[in-house]
# Entry
Amino acid sequence: MPATYPAALRGWSTKRDFQDPIFAANFNQTQDELAAIERTLGLMPQRATNNPARRTPDYGTVTARILASARGEPMIAYRGTHIGAQVIPNEYFRPRLTAVEDTHGMAHNTGFRINQTGYWMITAKADWLATSASQRQITSRMLSLEINQRDVGLRDVLLESDKNRDSMTTTVTWQENLVEGTDITVALHAILADTERIVEPVNVYLRAHLVRCLRQGGPGLPNPNFDPDPPPPPPPPPDDGCQEHYPDDGCLNHTGYQPQGPCGQPYSIRWHPYLNTSATYDSCGNVVEIHRSPNAGTLYSGRWDGTHSNIDLRTGFPGYVHYGF
# Structure
């Protein structure tokens, strides 16, 4: 008979000495249930097999392991500080941080190195103190959250003024899918025309915690550089003498000839629908000479100025101009 656990709990009857018969089925049922419990719990159920950062702590009992997981104890957390950092104006400064909390040994001198691929919450904060130099001139302060020791555009900039001088804080909060081995640091920058190089005091804080584990990182790190502008459109073709407001002004198969020079200088124009009929115009659009074959209709020629057409009197259709030599 198959075991009922873990789908249900089997009911057991109490056996009395010298009164109730004991059969083999009684032992077999017990063994089946014990085997089902073992399969469900697995081997070493009190020990974690793949906690964040691939740790495998032994909690002693299954109850202790479940409790630790419910309290979030296996999750990774980091807090680093630098109290009273001295920033030289107009120079980038990466402060050394002291880890006041480091659950999984990620800390290094200037930040921490992520040891578990997953979804992370990171916050950097800097509290700035005004100086006599910053009160005399315009001063701006910047806090940057660096990924792999480079600026990726995660910044907060503060311009000192009378309204904020008593409480100057810059903060950057970032959520990202980051891969194991990613370095997280902060950088500070104070900008002012300080000829005496008076230091800018600041308190720096960096915090991070793992929200959940992932098999791989996100689509990519933030990039402060925008995509390049698209190339400009190609220049329009040179004016070939066609009238733009006529969809078909007869400039089919044109050679690109453009009238130039004084009036009276001729150039040749061919007319449709009779391809063997042509006229000669000068560069101002005045008719110089008309050429017509015996098969063509009587051609009335007028000035081509975008408002008059050249009409074949035999058919009543306008002519179409083909420029060429």
